[in-house]
Specification:
Bound molecules: geranylgeranyl diphosphate
Strand order of the largest sheet: 1-2
Order of helices and strands: HHHHEEHHHHHHHHHHH
CATH superfamily: Farnesyl Diphosphate Synthase
Distance between the termini: 27 Å
Length: about 300
């Protein structure tokens, strides 16, 4: 019998395959009803940004939390695809010269390198908009109230008070707009909860929304999402210090060179790793009421903490 880690790896790969197929369809060159035309260069650049790469961790979290509530897999995959479109947009804009100025993403040239800056900006705009187009579709859930809740929560997670707001705090912390200031541990936790945590928390909450879970189950899933969101960022910061560019598929060592506000910089590697382990415990404790039904999500928490890319 397969152990939890092998089962987790198989399920992550299966979701990644299904998401790839869905994204390939969603980014087809053919215009949809009420669209006028899809410019080939923009389609090609969006496909470069979204296809053939990435762990597809956020869609996986949607599918697995939805499975706790016996949600239909098709709707969970559509929700996950919408979320992945937002994630891909954020990477394209983050890599732009005006942001992190990166040449490499998922082992390939970044969109502005493979195309140009203006195209990369439009890729981000179009992926972001397409995400909400997808989330509003009937395939996501037959109940329009559920879809409206998902649209609302995704907007809150992605925008001003979520990911984009977190990116703003990150740029400010680098000293882009005023003098650089050392952030407190609490400020770093808030910044990261917005910049990276918000989409990961949304992924988990989306499963509970799709499943019309009761308040207690929603709280448990939200606690899990919050803990793994923090764990994901600490692991990412440790990889920036300890990983290598080839394995990561993006530049390593950039955060330290830019003097970025991270918990690894503030606490040091050993304390950051101890915090990471505590967060995995916290994530697993949050799932207690789901017993063995949540084994894959427990394995996911371990994977997030131990990942090498
Ligand atoms: C530009 C609005 C805007 C936001 C950017 C998420 C983000 C905010 C920037 C990405 C920069 C970055 C590398 C953050 C660290 C955490 C992170 C999102 C890593 C990449 O996510 P993975 O590891 O990537 O899930 P894959 O390629 O597997 O999808």
């Amino acid at each position: 019998m397969k152990n939890d880690t092998a089962r987790f790896t198989d399920r992550l790969a299966a979701t990644a395959r299904d998401i790839e197929t869905l994204l390939d369809q969603l980014l087809s060159p053919a215009a949809l009803s009420s669209e006028t035309a899809r410019p080939p260069r923009l389609v090609a650049a969006m496909r470069h940004a979204a296809l053939d790469g990435g762990k597809r961790l956020r869609p996986f979290l949607v599918v697995e939390t939805a499975a706790l509530f016996d949600v239909d897999r098709t709707g969970a995959l559509m929700t996950g695809a919408a979320l992945e479109l937002i994630h891909c947009y954020s990477l394209v804009h983050d890599d732009l010269p005006a942001m992190d100025n990166d040449d490499l993403r998922r082992g390939r040239p970044t969109v502005h390198k493979a195309f140009d800056d203006a195209t990369a900006i439009l890729v981000g705009d179009s992926l972001l908009t397409l995400a909400f187009d997808v989330m509003a579709r009937a395939e996501v859930h037959p109940d329009a109230t559920v879809r409206a809740t998902l649209v609302l929560e995704l907007a809150r997670a992605s925008g001003l008070g979520g990911m984009a707001g977190g990116q703003m705090l990150d740029l400010a912390a680098e000293g882009r707009f005023e003098n650089k200031r050392t952030l407190s541990e609490k400020e770093i936790v808030t910044l990261q909860a917005m910049k990276t945590g918000a989409l990961i928390r949304f992924a988990c909450n989306a499963g509970a929304i799709l499943g019309k879970a009761d308040a207690a189950a929603r709280t448990s899933v939200a606690r899990y999402g919050s803990a793994i969101g923090q764990a994901f960022q600490i692991a990412d910061d440790l990889l920036d210090v300890e990983g290598d560019t080839k394995t990561l598929g993006k530049a390593a060592g950039k955060d330290a060179a830019a003097g970025k506000a991270t918990l690894v910089a503030t606490l040091g590697v050993d304390r950051a790793r101890a915090r990471l382990n505590e967060l995995v415990e916290e994530a697993n404790a949050a799932l207690a009421s789901f017993s063995e039904k949540s084994d894959t999500l427990r394995a996911a928490a371990r994977f997030i903490a131990e990942r090498r890319a």
